[in-house]
Every structure is written in C-alpha cells, then in structure tokens.
Amino acid sequence: MTELTDLTLAEIRDGVARGGFSAREVAQAFNAAVEAGRPLNAYIVETPEKALEAADAADKARAAGDLKPLSGVPLGMKDLFCTEGVQTSAASRMLEGFTPTYESTVSAKLWQAGAGMLGKLNLDQFAMGSSNETSHFGNVVSPWKGKDGKELTPGGSSGGSSAAIAARLCPAATGTDTGGSIRQPAAFTGIAGIKPTYGRCSRWGVVAFASSLDQPGAMARTVRDNAILLEAMAGFDPKDATSLDLAVPQLEAGLSSSLKGKKVGIPKEYRPDGLNAEIAALWDRGVEWLKDAGADVVEVSLPHTRYALATYYIIAPAEASSNLARYDGVRYGLRDLPDGAGLQDMYAATRAAGFGDEVKRRILIGTYVLSAGFYDAYYTQACKVRTLIARDFAQAFEQCDVLLTPTAPSAAFALGEKKADPLEMYLNDVFTVPASLAGLPAMSVPGGLSSEGLPLGLQIIGRPLDEQGVLNAALALEERAGFAARPEKWW
Amino acid sequence: MSNSTYRIQGATGEWEVVIGLEVHAQVVSQAKLFSGAATAFGAEPNSQVSLVDAAMPGMLPVPNRECIRQAVRTGMAINAQINTWSRFDRKNYFYADLPQGYQISQLYHPLVGEGQIEITLDEKDPDSPVKTIGIERIHVEQDAGKLMHDQHPTRSYVDLNRSGVALMEIVSRPDMRSPAEAGAYLRKLRTILRYVGSCDGNMEEGSMRADVNVSVRKPGEPFGTRTETKNVNSVRFVMAAIEMEASRQVDVLESGGTIVQETRLFDPDKMETRSMRSKEDAHDYRYFPDPDLLPLELDDAFLEECRASLPELPDAKVKRYESELGLSAYNAAVLTAEAETARWFEQLLAAGARIQKKSEADVAKASANWLLSELYGALNRLGRGLDDSPVSPEQGAELLALIADGTISGTIAKQVFEIMLETGDAAGKIVEEKGLKQTSDTGAIEAAVAKILADNADKVEQYKGGKEALFGFFVGQTMKAMQGKANPQIVNELLKKALAN
C-alpha cells in the first residue's frame, strides 16, 4: 500500500469518503512526517492536535453522512495567515509570540470546509524574500539536493509551504503571492501553485506586505489539488474592500485538459538574451505540449515587461513601508523600551530589533520613494508604468486566452548563494512580477528536471477571473510533462 | 461683499488680518469611518475599539456608507461640488495615538470640492453686513486616539475610543478679515452642520475643532506668511487666538523680524499662542493612495437620496419666515439660529394653525412672540432648554388658541402658563378647572363698571376734566373687580361709553 503521506489531496478526500482509511490515520501519518521533517525547518509551529481534532470531526461526519469538501484533509498554513490561538509571526521577531484572537477569512473558510491544520509554515520574513533566508526562525531547507549535495533554497516567500509539500509533510498548503511568492517556490520544489486574480481570496487576517499586490493562493502537488483548495479559499469577503463580489466558479468540476479552440500566447519579451538554455528548452517543450492538447500558439508582445521589476520594487516597498508602520511596540508584538527611553527611542529600538535586514531594506526603499521631492519621480511614475503593463496584458489577451512562460529564470540555487546581493535575488521574480502588477491569475506547474536533477516550472498566466482557463492549460501541461520526480529523503 | 474695517493699529500704521479656518467636524454616525466600532462620547477608555481601530496584523478598513453620506449631504448644504470620484490617501507618521502608523485621509481627491457659506456679522441685526466665505474642500478622514499623561508618574496611557472615528475637514478660503468674521463663520457653519445632522457641533466634547490660519499685511498688499494654530476648541478661543496671533505678528514685523511659517498652540489660560514646530521640523507625511481601499464612486441614486434627505437650510428658512410668515428679521434670525429652535417653532405653528383652523402665517407672529418671550423667559428661569421644556409645542399652541379666540386674556394666559409649567396640564383643562374663562357677559361687566365709576367719582371728574390717562386706571380696576376674566375689549368699550355720559 502507498503511504498515506504520498496521497494527493483529492486521494485523501476520496479515500476518507470511501472509507479506505480514516481521517485520523491520515492526520497521524502527516503529524509523524512533520515531526520527522524538522531538519527542513518548514514549520514554525506544529499543531498536531488541531490536525487530529479536525480528523476526528471528519470521521464523525463520514459516519453521519455529512462530509464537507475538505473533510479529512490536513493542511499546512503559511504563517502569514492569522490563526486564532496559534502564534502568527510572519517569520519575524517583531511578531514572535503574537497569538491572534481572530482567524483570517481564508483559513476560517478552510476549517469550515472540514480541513485540519498541521502547523504554521515558515516563510521569508513578512513575505519579503525569494529564498526563505530572511526568516527570523532560520531558513527552510529544500528537500531537493543538487548533484553537488549543497543545501538548496525552497524558494520564497512561501518556501515553508513548497518544501513541506515536496517533502510530503502536508498534502497541500496555503501560500501568498505578492510578486511570485507562490509560483517561484512551487517551481523550485517540483510542485504546482496558483495565485488567483487579485481580489479572489480575502486578504482579511493576512499579515500585509504590499496591499495592492498581496493575494492568497493554493499550493499542492497536482493541478487538481490546486483547483480543490483554491475553490475552498476563494470568495467575496465584505471585510476586505478589495475583495471581488463574485461567485466562486466550480474549479474542480470545470477541469479539462482539452485546449481545442484555445490560443496560447508566447510573449517574446520573456526570452531575453542570455536566458538559461535549459529553461528555454523546457519552454519550447511546453509549447509543443499545449499544441498537442489542441491549442493554437501565437507570439505576442508585452513591450513594458522590461520595466516590471523596477516598477514592482518601487510599489511593493512603498506600500510595505506604510503597512509595517503599525509594528511600533505600543500595542502588541515586540517592545524594546530601553531605560529612560521616550516614545521615539522606543520606536527606534523596537523596530531595529524586531525587523530583519531585508525588511528594513524595503522599508527604507519604500520610505524614500514616497518622500517629498521623490514621490513623483518614483511612486507616481511606477504607478503609470504599472498601468502600461496591465494594458500590455489586456492587448495580448485580445489575441490569446492564456500565456505560457517560464516561472523562474533558473532552478533552485544554493542557500547563501545570492544572499549578499539583493539585486541578484530580486531578478528571480522577473517572470512572475508582471502578472502580479496586473492582478492576473497565474500558476506554476512542474515541467521537468534540470541537468542537475532539480525541478523546473512553467507558468500559465490568464485573463482576469479566468482561473479555470489557467488551471486547464496547467492540467494539459501536467498530463504531458508526466513529472513524477520526488526528492530523495535525506532528513 | 462688504469690506471689513477691522484693523490692528501698529506703530507703522494699520494692518489687516487674513484668516482661513480648517474645521474638523466629527461625523454623526453609529460606527467609525472604517470599522464597526461604536462612537459614543465619554465611554470607558478602550471600550469602543475594534481590531481594525487597534491596527492588529492583517486588519483592513472598509468604508462606512453613512459617514460618506453625511459628508456628501454637508457638501450639498454649502452648495459645493460633490466629486463622484474620490480616493483615500494615507498620511504617514508615527505617534502612540495612531495605531496604524498612518491616518487615512483624502489629500489628492477629496469627496467635496468648492462651495461657500454666507455669513452675517451680527445675525440679529437686519442691517448687518453679509459676506460670502469660500470653502475650498471637505474631505473625510480618521480621528486619532487620545494620550493620557496624568494616569501614571512615568508612563502615558492610550485611549483608542476615538481612533478611527470619522471627521470631516472643512477647509475655508483665506476670506475672513476679522475675529468677528471668523466667529460668525464658525457659528454659521455649526448651524448648518446641526441642521444637516452631520455633526452635533459640540465644541466642548471636541466634536468640532478648528485649525486657525492667520497672517497680517498692510491693506492692499499681497498675503503675508501665515501661521497655523492647531486644535482651538471654542468660538471664543478662535476669536481670541486670532487677535493674539495677529498682534504678535504685527509686533514681530514692526520690530524688524519676519514671520516663520509654523504650527502653533493656543494657550487659553495665558491667552497666547506658542510655537509647536516650525516648517523645518515639519513631518514628511509621504501621502499615497491607500492600497487597501478602492476609489470611492458615487452613483446618481446615492446623490439623489442625499439631496432628498436634506432639510430646509437656515438661509432659506430666514427668507421664508420673513416673506411668507411676515416675521421680523430679528425674530427670523433668532428662530433659525438653532435647528432645534426652528423645529420647535414649526411644530408650534403647525399645531396652532390646525387648532385655530387658520393659516400658519396667521398664527406666526403671536407664536414667535410667545416662544421668544414667554417660553424662553420661563426656560431661562428653570435653567432648561427647548429639548426638555415642560411644555410641548402642542400645549403651547393650545394656550395661544385660547388667547386668540378670546377664551382667556393675555394676562390670564400668563397665569395659565405658569400652572402649565408646574403641572404639565393642558391649558384648556386649567382654564376649565380654575374657572379662568374670560367673560364677555356685558351685563356683569356693565355692573362692575358702574360700581367702579361710582366708587371713584373724583377720578371720573378729573378724567372728564382732561386727565385721560386715568382711563387705564378704570380698566385696571374693572379687570380687578372681574378677577381678570373680563374680555378687555368689551371692558374698553363699556368704559368709554359710560365715561362719555
């Protein structure tokens, strides 16, 4: 028999419903895997009792014939989602020990759907980072290893989520994506992850990084699991003014890998000089796979792509500098009050001690670009370019239904490799940031392995609200890529 | 527009004062601007604080429709442009009473644009000059919490009850030229806000506070450098702050100094303004559009509802009271100065017209006079206001109807009113029970007249000899004999007839 921890979310759900195994057995198996997986540092907080509690409720519900969509499914929760009674730290020292009295809308929806929580997953501090090395609780280690045996990054910021899923420490997990924080870690660890249209999932109760970009999403090994999880997470929330007041489509029921009559756009600007040859080759294979699924392929142009990264690294820090002002030591979280200190001294001491280097760097950048005299040159200009980038996509989608691109410019890199140079680190987001700026649904699916034996991902970007189109194209890729590689267990 | 003649006499000649006011008016609504927490004044510290108001991690603001509606109605009441597309911006600064680390306000695209308010320097003087004060904008923003420094020897406490409460910032043009004009503007603005019901105008509770911008110049010269005196909380203090600040500026300029653009504080104990911070230490607020909020777009139905819900406003009321009800300018001004007075008066009118089966115009003068003299006199004596008057408009109208139809005389009416104040009984009931009905029984009155004239033969002689002032004496004596209940008109007639013989 297959190990329970090797099952997909759909298989667990269906197995519990059929009675092939109990939800409690599943929870126990994953609780054990979480404990054994500690060397990966994927979880900041483990909540085995919560997983068991939900499992027992699922077993009872099955006996009563009252199963819910996620009954029996244990999940990992990115530690950016506020969870009532369970520490929510955003992987920061600032919020270490902070225990919310409230539950984020997304996590509350998942518990209502019958899911249980295995624990809170590690991430880059306040979701700022592409390698998971900015966490106050230490970096996550990818379960994957290259031929040289070096420890690799699981990507970021949802690196705890990606590592835990790849290592079978949970069947699926929540992520959040501001500039690629779901898609890049998914690509680095050989799993799938979807960032829906901005506004599909409520941001209420999610620790904010950059409000106009932040979007919760799903991460799991298969496209189907992503569809199931996203369907349970999404929906209008009157507590989030940017939430979309629209019905959630039945994403799992709508899955179809036939792309007959669909047009796939290939943006030429995503193939810069010097693009990694393996990435370029995988992209070409992706094109063939989608053609094989019945799609027509057209070249499209997104002329403002080259400005996207610069635009993102103005807008996101600007919003972050303001969003993180609330961490001041007055009401909750860390307070560093030196003897005889006044209010300003307390602010300075608290924020100096509570924030890591990358967070401070972005607060400084954000503060700078919003300052009098620089505001128009940076922030206003970036907002204008953002509009142009969104217009590029709108024009491209007049010629095609979805776009196919690589997810990241390379496979996972070694921990420490890019830590010294923030700019090099930021380049990791080059393919994911444009869709974030335009608020579009986008997904990464595993496409194959590099010559080093490391996973590579392909990205599908869709029209606003067309998560179904994105999932279906991703499903067509998944079926043809036949990605079955898994990291060898070394932990 | 009239030109103010207010001048400050300096050593180098006359100076003119230029004043602009930024009034922060707390919006009347059950809930805060972006959260569902309550807004009542005087509640236990930190008892009206939601997760949003305390800026807990992951909390998001959601605009409160009622607060927006109140600001739009206020804009309409000052004939201002309503911007159907506006946006909220974040004003970033650190302070312990500001949990988010930013105030959500509107810098770039306010909800309400240009409007104006007409002021009368002395509202009770019909000949007093009238002046139009421009309103630059009204925007909506969050209030901050409150720091308490007197609870602990070394620590400060924070009360977040006010954090997130909706304020309207009403920004005038620098159109005022004297403390009196500023006072008239504030009073008029307060009246309008109370009519509209968008702010209770209560300056003692901090529902209305003013930032006072003052500069001085030689008449005819361009504007001088201004200072801003923050958070002045009464009309009297605003007028005083202007006077103090203008004199200070004149002194500085005349002694060869220059005015520094700065923020100042008004100290009502010492009656002076003091520097708080200068432009050099001014905050860089790093305003930018709040990414948690979408732009605010108002549709026609919403605007229609706002407009339809506006009451008749004070200026229109004054005109109607004068032209349709025939009231004096003075009475019209006094009756409309407070929304509550006008409401009470109009209830009195409506009831009077109904009871007497006359038009409101027919009963207006008597109603206005009674309200302003009898009722106000009584309320003053009792230390009460119209809102807790022991006599209702309906009861007042009944009393006035009894006078109008001759059932009781004005003199008896005063007695009846006193009893009404004490017992709360209806006028008719009192008149009935105490037998105060006026008599028009000519026989009885004739008999009384005859007796009075017989008893005072000497006075009758003097009267007939030309001392006509004695007529009042005979009326008084007759009324006294009739215990005040005789119809005074009939008494007059019968006395004249008897004395003519």
What is the annotated CATH architecture of chain A?
Alpha-Beta Complex
Structure class of chain B? alpha+beta
- What are the low-pLDDT stretches of chain A, counting only 5+ consecutive residues below 50? none
Number of strands of chain A: 11
Low-confidence stretches of chain B: none
Structural class of chain A, by secondary structure, is alpha/beta
How many E-type strands of chain B?
16
Query: What general outline of chain B do the C-alpha atoms trace?
Result: elongated
How does the major sheet of chain A shape up?
8 strands, mixed
Helix content of chain A: 25-40%
Number of domains of chain B: 3
Please tally the helical runs of chain A, counting DSSP H or I stretches of 4 or more residues. 15
Q: What is the average of the pLDDT values of chain B?
A: 93
- Give a quick account of the main beta sheet of chain B: strands, pairing sense, barrel closure: 9 strands, mixed
Please state how the strands of the largest beta sheet of chain A are arranged side by side. 4-6-5-10-11-9-7-8
Radius of gyration of chain A: 21 Å
What is the CA–CA distance across the termini of chain A?
A: 23 Å
Fraction in beta strands of chain B: 15-25%
Helix and strand run of chain A: HHEHEHEHEHEEHEHEHHHHEHHEEH
Supply the CATH superfamily name of chain A.
Answer: Amidase signature (AS) domain
The percent of residues in helical segments of chain B reads 25-40%
